[in-house]
Amino acid sequence: MTDTTHSGDLAAEETRRTSVTKRGGGAPASRGRTTIADGVVEKIAGLAARDVVGVHAMGSGLSRTFGAVRDRVPGGGGGKANATRGVKAEVGEVQTALDLEIVVDYGVSIADVTGDVRENVIAAVERMTGLEVVEVNIAVSDVKLPDEEDEEPEPRLQ
C-alpha cells in the first residue's frame, strides 16, 4: 500500500512541478494582436491580379495616366501607387473585401480572366495575411486592343 500512495505522490509532485515551470498564457502565436493595414492587402491583391494572363493593366485610364506621371516625379511614391492602382480593400479584424478595376487584353475571355483573378487574389491574400476574403468585386473598365498605344505620356528626359 505504501508503494501505491508513494507513486500517487510522485504523480502529484510531477504535475505541480510542470505547472510551476510552465510560463505564459497559451501558445506564443496567440499572445498579442496583429493588425494589417488596408494598403498591405491592396499591394498583395494588386500584384496577384497582375500575375494573371489576360490582365493588361489595373485601374481606369485616368488613374493610369496620373499614375504614370506620378511615377516620373522624384519622390512621387510611384512604387506603392503602381502596386495598389485599381485596388481598394476594406480590412476588418478577421475578414477583408476587395474591389478591383482591371483592363483586359483583347481576345481573352473576360469571364475566365476575372475568375482567374479572383482565385489568384483570394489565394494570395488568405495565404499571406490569414484574413478571410469574403468578396472580390471586379470592374472591367477597358479592353486593350493590339494596335492601341498605352496611355502613358512620353518621358521628358531621354
Specify the number of helices: 5
The profile of the biggest β sheet is:
4 strands, mixed
Classify the oligomer: single chain
Strand content: 15-25%
What does the average pLDDT come to?
A: 80
- Count the E strands: 4
Protein architecture, described:
This protein has 5 helices and 4 strands. Strands 1, 2, 3 and 4 form a 4-stranded mixed β-sheet that branches. Helix 5 links the parallel strand 3 and strand 4 (132-144). It is α+β, with helices and mostly antiparallel strands.
Topology:
Blueprint: H1 2-21, H2 38-50, E1 55-58, H3 61-72, H4 78-84, E2 87-91, E3 95-105, H5 110-129, E4 132-144
Parallel strand pairs: 3-4
Antiparallel strand pairs: 1-3, 2-3
Helix pairs in contact: 2-5, 3-4
Provide a quick synopsis of the model.
By secondary structure, the protein is α+β, with helices and mostly antiparallel strands.
Fill in the keyword field for this structure.
158 residues; alpha+beta; 5 helices; 46% helix
